[in-house]
Amino acid sequence: MKMMWVLVSVIGIICIGGCATRSAMLDAPLEAGRSQTFRADYDRVIRASRDALTSSGLDIDKASEMDNETFVILAQKGVSMSSYGELVRLTVQGVSESETEVKVYTKKRLATNITARGDWADTVFANIALQLR
Fold first, then answer.
1. What is the pLDDT of residue 97?
2. 47 touches 71 (CB < 8 A)
3. Would you give the distance in Å from CA 53 to the centre of its chain?
4. What are the pLDDT digits (tens) for 21-49?
5. What domains are there in the chain, each with its CATH number?
6. Distance of CA 67 to the CA centre of its chain
7. pLDDT reported for residue 23
């Protein structure tokens, strides 16, 4: 009986905590997340962003151009012994011919997952900067 209550409690926490989904990440406002501007053209930053995500230990799920000035990449960190995984959305937007803004928006797959990193922005920005050298 006690085990039954534990199971019901865990299911309740999961339902209340909410989960991050691919569609919710793609539907979030483009302004969501932390941003940094890089002194490089749009196409070069897209290539650097892809490489930065994979070198950060993330797997790219989807990448698509929304318009001529906006490219969106959805990546994930899979389930591990210490985490239920995370989703990371990277938005690349051209500011001018020589400047491009990148926004990194991260969500835990399970809101109650306290062992997940929670914010990949610093790591991804550092890796983009390395790729642009």
1. 93
2. no
3. 9
4. 888 888 899 999 999 999 999 999 999 99
5. 19-132 (3.30.310.80)
6. 20
7. 85
